[in-house]
Amino acid sequence: MRRALTPETPDDATPDDATPDAAAPAMAGPVAGASSSRCVVSLRDVTKRFSNGTLALSRMTMDIRKGEFVSLLGPSGCGKSTALRIIAGLGSPSQGTVDWPASRIERDGRPDADVGFVFQEPTLMPWKPVFDNAYLPLRLKGGSKGEVRDRVMAALETVGLKDFAKAYPRELSGGMRMRVSIARALVTDPKLLLMDEPFGALDEITRQKLNDDVLRLWNEKDLTVVFVTHSVFEAAYLSSRIAVMGARPGRVVSDMVLPRPEGRERDEAFRLSETYGDLCRTVSQALAGAMHAPPAGEGA
Amino acid sequence: MTGVSAAVPAGLAKTARRRDHLLRLAVPAIMLGLTLLAWEVYVRVNAVPPYILPAPSLIARTLVKDWGTLYPALLVTLRITFSALILALIGGTLLAVLLVQSRWVELALYPYAVILQVTPIVAIAPLILVYVSSTQVAIMICAFLVAFFPILSNMVQGLKSVDHNLLNLYDLYGATRWQQLRLLKLPAALPYFMTGLKIGGGLSLIAAVVAEFAAGSAGAGSGLAFRLLEAQYRLNIPRLFAALVLLSATGVAIFALTSILAWLALRRWHESALAREN
User: In three state form, how does the secondary structure of B92-105 look?
Assistant: First the structure.
């Protein structure tokens, strides 16, 4: 870890310096090609300082590759949700870049991020039935209801809610509402699915069921997922890779790729297996290490 | 009654519900009947003169007898009330949308809305009467000013209370400001709009009467307020009561109408319109 951030501060106050296309083409090349099967999104030294001065995220560098299931695991205040929101384009980094090597650049100069986002709450419009809620992303992109009806119904079918298309959110259970939220995130076939502690508010049984559903979708649809959680068990069960984060300032402390032989099922048997127990222990130790690791810049 | 405790049959539940509905109508109706009866008896037994307190039966007879005078006045008051309310709904909603678009607009305009609200309407009425030639229009403006503010402030509150994550979601999918307003903010503000409508509906009737008192309009083409004053001057207390009955009935009707509208608009999704059993 480098010592301090101050010498690195770019002078992007001068307008000449910040030519709009300076950053984008630089990263469009095979920069991230080190070990990658195709890189979906690449974070370089991403730092976020809120207007009240809090350093939420400090120099996060990470490549998310196609087909990965990455969990951002850490205590509250470690910037994991901030990182997720920056990837989604909800709020821009104070320093650093987020690049989408495989995405085309839109007319306004921003890459066509093409993400699905699942919030901690289902975040449905209560005045719209399930179908219209799942239809929203396509509607905002200009698809007429008739044209995309099949796509919306297909998305609802993948989460097992085909028969509830006409129901209103309040008529559904918490787990079903979350499923609608997932269907809505998947309806655009996004390159990247971002999930921000999606099942934190659910009971344990529903949560396990939805974890299995998400894994099934990940396998079936060959999704790339970034999943924010503070549960060691959830992260160990789901992930192909875990980024353990520490707080004050928020940063990635260790980045571990989990052994995950092809075709190994994640099911009740796995949940009870010794392998899973070992995995949880390893991850748990990494998290404990992260909580006690000295923040960057206090070492020397 | 030993068999029904485990599972209440559907038919029985239906009967119970019907009985509940019946009770909800019957109890207030019987209560009202008893009150009127007590009033009638009191007046007759004590021989209270009609210019002090007329009996309900006399008020009813006056209502029928003076219908030719009272009905046109009622129409005038209704017209003022509803045109003021509709204008307030349109104006309040439009201004609220404008205010939440930008913090600067809100800072600049909101104080005027507050000043208009806190200044007693009776005090503004003479001024409006000077500027506007038609008394009816002047009264309508007064009623509009009174009904306008609750609708505005409720709408502003509603438009600002949209779920932050839903706003993020709309941003994520590149929604335009217009889409965000039409598909998200306005529907989310609907419960607040309905509250504004209920308050504004009652207030516009009150304001229509008060402003007419203040305006001191007279003669043909005047509303119920003038007929009230006129009846008072002539010590025609039965007619005064009859006019009051009409005003109360109008107020109740407006309340019922706005409540039904709110229920129709929100019954599928909003907490306030849900019937819960527990």
Answer: HHHHHHHHHHCHHH
Which residues are within 8 A (CB) of A36 and not within 5 positions of it... i.e. 6 or more apart? A63, A65
Contact B184 A90 (CB under 8 A): no
- With CB atoms and an 8 Å threshold, state whether B169 touches A123: yes
Task: Give the C-alpha separation, B251 to B259, whole Å.
Answer: 12
Q: What pLDDT, in 10s, does the model give residues A255-268? A: 888 876 555 567 77
In angstroms, what separates the C-alpha of B118 from chain A's closest C-alpha? 35
**With contact defined as beta carbons under 8 Å apart, do A10 and A17 qualify?**
yes
**DSSP three-state, residue A3:** coil
CB B152 within 8 A of CB B89: no
Q: Which residue ranges make up each domain of chain B? A: 16-42+56-65, 66-270
CB atoms within 10 A of CB B180: 17
Please state the φ and ψ torsions of residue A214, each to the nearest 5 degrees: -65, -40
Task: Write down the pTM of the prediction.
Answer: 0.80
Let me know: does B85 contact B93? Beta carbons within 8 Å: no
Q: What architecture does CATH give domain B66-270? A: Orthogonal Bundle (1.10)
Chain A: closest CA distance from residue B194 (Å): 14
Q: What is the ipTM of this complex?
A: 0.79
The set of residues, in sequence order, having a beta carbon less than 8 Å from that of A189 and lying 6+ positions away, is A221
Q: Which residues are within 8 A (CB) of B170 and not within 5 positions of it... i.e. 6 or more apart?
A: A140, B179, B180, B183, B184
